[in-house]
């Protein structure tokens, strides 16, 4: 094959790669997904183990014009929303409180791709349904190779209004509220104007007589990762035991398990027991497990982790039953 033929084949391959990328984010290609959670699962926006997934957010000076991968979760969720003829907006920017390293937080805060691609987003579908997705950075690091590439671990999850209020209560919405038009002032007669002046003088006197009350503002206390993990686990266990809101309960269990092993005895318990709940969801809640390919294998992986690393008796028993 001569050089011209090689270049021609190479150019076709490059063009096809570009088409594939464009098609993968074409809203029409998202029509077959039944829910936003299914998009997260099938598109692999999180890691295979359900935890945060690494994306390139800075390719370095050699590839500064290449689009950051950290926008992929937002782009996928936005495309699904568009497929439902919905409107996708950012409600809150990420406060980066899941990133433990202070230097990493400061660095991430300087990147527009992080500001635009993370936080809380809401989709208002044409059929009246609304859902919110949180895309949160968990950690950041330099690539292991010798390049200047930097990676950010992002965790994508569907959340409800209560969780949004608890985690973003110190932050105002980024969506600008429309200002209401001011009403035109009514014209007054001279006699009415005099009456208004008298009332204003009397009001000022009353105001001076009253001493203002200086009540200290109560600042909301942000939840720690351990508290969030425990709350998610408790809610998941309650709903699964009651047989209600099972898909939401399974998602809460998955989120609790995704926090990993945190410090503290209660945190270890929340991690292990939420893992057990996830395994049960994958094997006995069809509405949840259908979103995961190889749900049984995924459940076995979680159980083997708990049985091997935590000597969890329940995990061992469940593994024996699955053989």
Could you explain how this protein is built, in words?
The protein has 323 residues and is α+β, with helices and mostly antiparallel strands. The protein contains 13 helices and five strands. The protein has a five-stranded antiparallel β-sheet. Helix 8 runs parallel beside helix 10, helix 9 crosses helix 10 and helix 12 runs antiparallel to helix 13. The radius of gyration is 26 Å and the shape is globular. The N terminus is likely disordered.
Count helical runs: 13
Q: Major sheet, described briefly?
A: 5 strands, antiparallel
- Work out the strand percent: 5-15%
In the sheet with the most strands, the strands line up as 1-5-4-3-2
Q: Note poorly predicted spans.
A: 1-23, 175-190
What would the average pLDDT be, to the nearest integer?
A: 79
Radius of gyration: 26 Å
Distance between the termini: 54 Å
Counting structural domains, the number is: 2
Helix and strand run: HHEHEHHEEEHHHHHHHH
Coarse structural class: alpha+beta
What is the approximate shape? globular
Number of strands: 5
**Helix content estimate:** 40-55%
Write the layout of secondary structure elements.
Blueprint: H1 3-24, H2 36-42, E1 53-58, H3 72-83, E2 87-92, H4 102-108, H5 112-117, E3 119-124, E4 130-142, E5 150-159, H6 161-168, H7 190-209, H8 225-242, H9 246-258, H10 265-284, H11 286-289, H12 295-310, H13 313-322
Antiparallel strand pairs: 1-5, 2-3, 3-4, 4-5
């Amino acid at each position: 094959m001569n050089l011209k033929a090689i270049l021609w084949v190479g150019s076709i391959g490059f063009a096809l790669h570009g088409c594939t990328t464009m098609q993968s984010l074409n809203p029409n290609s998202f029509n077959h997904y039944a829910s936003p959670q299914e998009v997260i699962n099938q598109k692999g926006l999180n890691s295979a183990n359900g935890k945060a997934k690494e994306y390139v957010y800075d390719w370095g000076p050699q590839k500064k014009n290449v689009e950051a991968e950290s926008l992929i979760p937002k782009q996928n969720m936005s495309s699904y929303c568009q497929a439902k003829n919905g409107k996708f907006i950012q409600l809150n920017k990420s406060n980066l409180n899941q990133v433990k390293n202070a230097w990493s937080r400061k660095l991430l805060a300087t990147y527009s791709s992080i500001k635009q691609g993370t936080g809380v987003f809401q989709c208002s579908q044409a059929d009246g349904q609304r859902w919110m997705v949180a895309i949160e950075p968990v950690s950041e690091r330099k690539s292991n190779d010798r390049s200047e590439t930097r990676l950010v671990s992002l965790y994508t999850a569907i959340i409800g209004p209560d969780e949004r209020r608890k985690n973003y209560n110190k932050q105002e919405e980024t969506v600008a509220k429309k200002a209401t038009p001011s009403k035109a002032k009514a014209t007054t007669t001279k006699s009415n104007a005099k009456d208004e002046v008298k009332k204003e003088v009397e009001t000022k006197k009353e105001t001076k007589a009253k001493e203002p009350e200086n009540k200290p503002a109560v600042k909301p206390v942000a939840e720690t990762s351990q508290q969030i993990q425990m709350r998610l686990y408790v809610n998941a266990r309650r709903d699964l035991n009651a047989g209600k809101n099972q898909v939401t309960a399974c998602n809460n269990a998955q989120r609790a398990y995704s926090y990993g092993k945190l410090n503290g005895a209660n945190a270890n318990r929340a991690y292990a027991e939420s893992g057990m709940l996830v395994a049960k969801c994958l094997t006995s809640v069809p509405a949840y497990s259908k979103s995961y390919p190889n749900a049984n294998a995924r459940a076995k992986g979680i159980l083997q982790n708990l049985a091997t690393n935590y000597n969890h008796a329940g995990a061992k028993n469940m593994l024996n039953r699955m053989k």
